[in-house]
Amino acid sequence: MSAFVISKRFNGEFKFTFANRKGKTIFTSFSLKKKSDCELIINAIRENFSDFTITRKKKSGKHFFRISKGGLVLANSRKFSTELMLEKGLDQIVKYVEEAETLDFSESENVFEEPEPVAAGETK
Hints:
Organism: Salinimicrobium gaetbulicola
CATH class: Mainly Beta
Radius of gyration: 17 Å
Helix content: 10-25%
CATH architecture: Roll
Mean pLDDT: 90
Protein name: DUF1508 domain-containing protein
InterPro entries: YegP-like_sf
Strand content: 25-35%
Number of helices: 2
Distance between the termini: 34 Å
Largest sheet: 7 strands, mixed
Low-confidence stretches: none
Structural class: alpha+beta
């Protein structure tokens, strides 16, 4: 299943990504001051992706797209090697965005639990 992933940048601001079913990032938002802004944009994308403007770009032989609304650019896609791959990325958004889950990794630096220390020579 595809997912939106909210995380915190090193400067304390927030961002979100949209990852496909294989975990590959399709697009990343720009920095946002509040996590609630991420949640609002994610919900808007999830509910009405067709309301957003997709602008296809090409730079240095790589293809990418921008997602915007009302002239405000909200996210950039990853770079794709071909135009066909870019279109496949867009197709995955259209196909899976409504059912994508939202994962919030912004609250904790350690997403995974720390393993319990094991003394030398001890086995579990």
